[in-house]
What we know:
The structure holds two protein chains of two kinds.
Chain A: H1 10-13, H2 17-32, H3 39-44, H4 46-66, H5 69-81, H6 83-86, H7 97-117, H8 120-136, H9 140-157, H10 162-179, H11 188-191, H12 196-217, H13 220-247, H14 256-262, H15 265-270, H16 272-276, H17 285-292, H18 295-308, H19 312-330, H20 335-373, H21 379-388, H22 399-426, E1 435-438, E2 444-447, H23 449-460, E3 466-468, H24 474-481, E4 484-485, H25 494-505, H26 508-517, E5 522-526, H27 541-549, H28 575-578, H29 581-587, E6 603-604, E7 609-610, E8 621-626, E9 632-637
Parallel strand pairs in A: 3-4, 3-5
Antiparallel strand pairs in A: 1-2, 5-9, 6-7, 8-9
Helix pairs in contact in A: 4-5, 4-7, 4-20, 5-20, 7-8, 7-10, 8-10, 9-12, 9-19, 10-12, 12-13, 18-20, 19-20, 20-22, 23-24, 25-26, 25-27
Chain B: H1 2-15, H2 30-45, H3 48-54, E1 60-64, E2 67-71, H4 83-108, H5 113-141
Antiparallel strand pairs in B: 1-2
Helix pairs in contact in B: 2-4, 4-5
Amino acid sequence: MSWYPLGRVVGGTVFPGIMLTAGTLYFFLKKIVRITVHIKHVCVFMGPFFASNASLITYLFTKEVSKDYGAGLISAVMIAIVPGYISRSVAGSFDNECIAIFALILTYYLWLKAVNTGSMFYAASCALAYLYMVSSWGGYVFIMNLIPLHAFVLIIVGRYSKRLYVAYTTLYILGTLLSMQVPFVGFQAVQSSEHLAGMGIFGLIQLVAAVKYVHSILGEKYFKLFLKILGFIAVSILVLFVVIGFATGYIAPWTGRFLSLLDPTYAKKYIPIIASVSEHQPTAWSSYFFDLQSLVFLYPVGLYYCFKNPSDSKIFLILYAVTSTYFTGVMVRLMLVLAPICVILGSMALSNLFKLFAYKIREFDEENKNKKKSQNKNTKKQNKKKKKTEQNKIFNLGYISATLMIAVLTAMFISYIFHSIWVTSEAYSSPSIVLAAKGYDGNRIIFDDFREAYYWLRQNTAPDAKIMSWWDYGYQITAMANRTVLVDNNTWNNTHIGTVGKAMVKTENISAQVMEQHDVDYVLVLFGGLIGYSSDDINKYLWLVRIGGTVDPSIKEEDYLNSRKEFRVDSQGAPTFLNSMMYKLCFYRFWEVKTEGNKPSGYDRVRNTVMGNQNYELEAVEEAFTSEHWIVRIYKVLKKENRK
Amino acid sequence: MSKKLNFLESSFCKVLRPPQLNLRIIKPSSMAVFAFVLFALFIVFAGVIYDLIVEPPSIGVEYGFGNERPVTILKGRLNSQYIFEGIDGALFYLLGSIGLILIDQALTKERREKYGKIMFYTGVGLFACSFVIIIFFIKLKVPGYLKR
């Protein structure tokens, strides 16, 4: 159990798509195909399975947009290994994004098919794919705003047609009704501001269709009058609807996570939990090259081709590209959404460039054949033609230059493959439950402290013991130690997390009161000072202060920094910090340990200083377990004595 | 109905006089919009949003033997940058793309032969040099790039 003592309604706070998919695959394999697999293997390999499905769908998508088989094949190869997508779909990563990107590309493919053909069948299948997307990831809001934006831009640019009307109307009605079947979404589909764009464009497209119909019946004179009356009525109804909706509070305004995408400074000021996750940091320039390599160069070239020969689908690609680039700039985690569109545009560009040079080579070969057949026949005519068109002609690339350019582009493609393989093996496939490092003589040292500590908890504590730790380790404790936790990674209740933060950063007396209120039996902290593990709780300490400060206004960040505004662990650190519960728990008995030969005992290898507050006693807790390399430390909360 | 609307309009015009506006609907050409999109891409690739939120220094400083030397590239960590470094990187990304666009323009449009040659060779040079420079920057930033 988690979120003690509140509990959590799992059905209404979780997207069921990935669990349903894993269960369906397991059922299919066990009962219909009659192969015995464990559900664990199905879950582990779902990421790669759906990534290969995404590769197939990207081939169809690119072929649909560019009518070019070559571009489709290149895009299928590129999305199979693009590091931005691989980072979230390695084997063993069982998270919403595994199936969400496949559902995203499938929905967009069916939408473009529906707009290009105007058939209600494709629009209805798009609604079904949209249901699958809604059930898998919170990012479905991106689809529900991009498709109305695309319809709006098509109307503005003058590409409105009956196909667009049929596609959008069918998709909006069926899609909204279906998305309301998912318990997490429910009536948010018509109530929250994030879905308002779809409704607005739905109304607008009905108006545009009605106006065009009336235009075809009435003459010019009466049509202008009709437009004036209709415009007046429509604008007044819209204003009334918006004002009443927002005033009565029926339409909820933009909330936390999505508002922080539109206004990046919002999370930093008001919601520290969202700002503290390292994946939610904005993107620096090098992450783009690291996650996309050659595609950052080919991506604007693909945009250039879309602008050169625009069509309905290419306008969609331009909108998708621009919006997803902005969102990726705000949050590094959304590189996942940028990767498919980069691949599609990049492969279109690469295919067109290849074709330019390949046609030159083919022209050269055909010229040779023609020269051998008719050497003297048409020379006079050719001379006359040459004189006339001497001024303006297409640059005639030589045979060798064209071959060299094809070799250069192929070399770029090959370097993309090497880069992707290196990035995947070095950065995106290390397990985070077992740490590895190279020793001074090159051999590998394994740190298995996490599993050691969780299994100690599992075997040496009462089955109904409650563990208090920071929310990063909640899922791991619930799964491996099989114990109840106070907060876990779902972070749906910021106040509860703030209370845990307060218990960690205040002094021992106040912390003991909070722990007694919540029935806590054990406290778990992470400490990396012995081996130099830099993702421990002391490095996260300031985030605990900020999040605890949202619950208790007396916790201020400047109290925990010294007079020079630095966060220090040694004797020059702030006294509030050196007397806080988390410091005492992490550094207890560390003054007895010599970590490096030429440094005094108690030398912290992460912060590179000696610890400040030494030789203290713990009154409210006692030490229960410290793992082999001091990474995980568990303390038992002592019960208060009976009154005498 | 039209009489009622005309009456409404004329009565409105007697009280307030609407100004003489010469509004035109501006329809930019697709290449103008593309240039604007490239500029927006430059801003995002340069990590301007990262600069706004995290507020890094514009260049780094290296201390050695009594003097201070400026350092352009933040070494070691991947998702962090100095302000100048971001603009540098985005510049080379865009120059590489513009090189490829120049190649395409040189080979598909009819123009005088001299200009076709200049465009093609400039494009090839821009693209090749930008690619090599970006890989050099990344090797500075992530030590051990493409090594086991």
